[in-house]
Amino acid sequence: MNFKFLMLPVLALAIAGTSMAQTKGAIDSKTLSEIRNSFNADASTQAIQNAITNSKSIRDIALNRNKVGATDHFFKYRVAVKGITNQKSSGRCWMFTSMNTIRPNVIKDLNLSSFDFSHNYNYFWDIFEKSNLFLENIIATADKDMDDREVVRYLSSPIDDGGVWNSFFNVAKKYGVVPAEVMPETTISNNTGQLNRIVKEKLRGEAYKIRQLAIKKGHAKKVEAAKVSALKDVYRILALSLGQPPVDFTWRYKDTDGKVSEAKKYTPQEFMALVAPEFAKDEMVMIMNDPTREYYKVYEIKNYRNVAEGINWTYLNLPNDEIKAFAMASIKNNQAMYASCDVGKQHNREAGVMDMNTYDYASLFGVEFDMDKKARILTRQSGSSHAMTLIGVDVDENEKPIKWEFENSWGTTSGNNGYLTFTDEWFSEYMFRVVINKKYLNEKAIKAFESKPIQLPVWDYMF
């Protein structure tokens, strides 16, 4: 046995240990001793440690008893809505929410007991159009290095389920909408993870080949042909998984009086114009509370869209008080709104309530958590994670908001029978975006919205 070779790893570790101890910023023995001694393992601390280490959930132990039952689910002003939708295991909240803002008007105008759109239909076109946009972005950046920040951003996520209101606007504007029964959900549309992975792999492979062609001069026709060929494959994958979307369809309905309508033939675009005429007039504005940037300015995120010729994610940045006043006006006029927030923060799922300090981690651990909204955004601790339909507000005797209500898309077993109540304080800290009709804005906001947008990069932290 060669003992010299056995000694080498030991010697290397000793040298490495000496080097680590001398490294600036490394935790030395004195500092480590000070930190260890700061943990005072008295009886109270031992009891907390016992509770946490033997619990299945830190969250359950941190539940603030003073908050339990403190918020009811009654609202002075509430949009007339019917039925809860369920996006299941998909990231289509933005699509469900956008459709849920239109759905109440369809139910009312056609005198229906219930109605829903086909999310599967628009999901098909959303992924298909995102695939095209991805390939166009790859072609446009073919002269940049593979590790260029913009190229990396595109390749990191060629397509996904995610989106914001403009995503629905773009795809519905181009392809229209259809009733749920015309193109029903499939097992795959209800659980989209595997399909997304397959499409991503296909797109990345095609993108690599298209980049090689696009770099060369005089190959524009070959590049376009390669892109179309790739899109044919994507279309095939989607059609086999989701079904082929209809070019036109025949539809009739039964109203609450039992009357069956005449069967009529529609294109999806014609049906969109029938059930959502206001949507077609481009009257909606996305307003947002982003304390990291100047208020009364319009911001646009480069290439945040799903349709190549569509609009990017564009928003008017406003203080919370302005957003709340406009949202109240919309609710009082029975018009639901697309809204998005950081739904995971201080959310008591069993009670269907979101309130500040619902979970008191500071008291449980004896440490402070004191970031404001601006700091949470800039450090990536907080950001919009879920879209829901804003439908209700409760007020005090001075008509000041106390709490608000979401219609969610997680089914009736989630929250308060599918709805979520959140306090006005929670609104200020964790609400981000609301899409609202221009008629509910004041002159100052409308004038600000008409200004030229400040463009933000594709890797912006609000992306």
Notes on the structure:
By secondary structure, this protein is an alpha+beta fold. The chain has 2 domains: 94-275, Cathepsin B, Chain A; 281-456, Cathepsin B, Chain A (Alpha-Beta Complex). Helix content is 42%, strand content 14%. The protein has 16 helices and 14 strands. Strands 1, 4, 5, 6, 7, 8, 9, 10, 11, 12, 13 and 14 form a 12-stranded mixed sheet that branches. Helix 9 (193-215) packs antiparallel against helix 10. The model has no long low-confidence stretch (mean pLDDT 93).
As for the number of domains, it is 2
Order of helices and strands: HHHHEHHHHHHEEHEEEHEEEHHEEEHEHE
* Global structural class: alpha+beta
Query: How much is the radius of gyration in Å?
Result: 27 Å
The CATH fourth-level homologous superfamily of the largest domain: Cysteine proteinases
Return the CATH architecture of the largest domain.
Alpha-Beta Complex
Largest sheet features: 12 strands, mixed
Number of extended strands? 14
Task: Please indicate the percent range of residues in DSSP E strands (runs of 2 or more).
Answer: 5-15%
CATH topology assignment of the largest domain:
Cathepsin B, Chain A
- Alpha-carbon distance between the two ends: 60 Å
Mean pLDDT: 93
Q: Which runs of at least 5 residues are low in confidence (pLDDT < 50)? A: none
Helix fraction bin? 40-55%
CATH class of the largest domain: Alpha Beta
Helical stretch tally? 16
Overall outline = globular
